[in-house]
Write the structure tokens for this entry.
Amino acid sequence: MKVFCKRTSFWVTLNLLSLIILPSLALANPTTGSKIDDTAPVPKIPNVSPPKITPSYPATAPPPRVQPLPEERDIQERLQETDYRVSALQPDYTGNLWVASWRGLSRIDPNTGKILARVALPNRAISALAQDKVGRLWVGTYEGLQRVDLRTSEITAQNLFLPSKRVLSLLVDKRGYLWVGTDNGLALISPDRGLIVTTLKNLPGVSANALTLDAEGQLWVGTLDGLVRVNTASAYIMKRIDQLPGSTVQAVAISPEGLIWAGMPNSLLVINPKTGTVLRSVTPLRGRDVKAIRFAQDGSVWIGTSNGLLRLNPNTGAVLDRQVPGLPSSRVLTLATDVGKKLWIGTTEGLAWLMPKMTGAKPHLAFTRAVK
């Protein structure tokens, strides 16, 4: 009986121990024996297909390195943005030369090329220059007209209610009055008072591209549709010459013999001002875009075109100097003869000068892209 009781108590004790030990073993980590934290969040595995995870590359080789480097490209882009054109040249009464570039207005010594003065203007798109009888400089821009006092380099008058703000040409007549050509007519200004005397808005051909005076002191205007002669005292139209080959007159000059030389987009015409007839079309300039005409003291005539510079014998039309080399650009915009015993040439890429017996023009380094 005692043996049975002992066996019974042994099995009861063993069963109780199994009830205590087995649940605790079920909560233990099977590898480490540590308990699992029921509160830790279960990480989510993204449902992404293998091709989206594994990057794929084309079979071609990578592109070559871009030339030039970013720093060099920045310098080149800034140089390209700068406009170096020299659009107008004006000798002054002291023998110096005013240079109008799209980087500003400067006065230089034509003998040495040294820059003597610079004038800051509100608009640098300068299109024309003229000096009145008192010595003040008038500057035409695409935003109007300014009068500059050369002693102080200050602007003393501007705009003056012109027919248009886009000034294309300037000229001081024999009485000392200033004629202003715009893309919408002419204006006559009193330089002393800085006031408009009259305007000529109904100009045949509309745009006053170029101006010159004849031996009688009357004004010739090159327009979009031929030539117009204007009385400088009354501002009345005296004569019109139209139906010219090419129509648009963009440069005009009077020869020592009193003939009109008219630069057209595709020719150079010599015209009798009294009859209005075309005497000849200068053969070497046929098909050439003529931008500037200047007669020199030696009797020759310089012609600037959009494709180079030439010197002609005005009597025969023979070419004396063909395609002058050394210019900053072949696109000539303006000329000034016999200033410091030199010919000065304004181009779309800067300023150059030429002396007799030189084989080619020399660029003025302060006004060309060569100087960074």
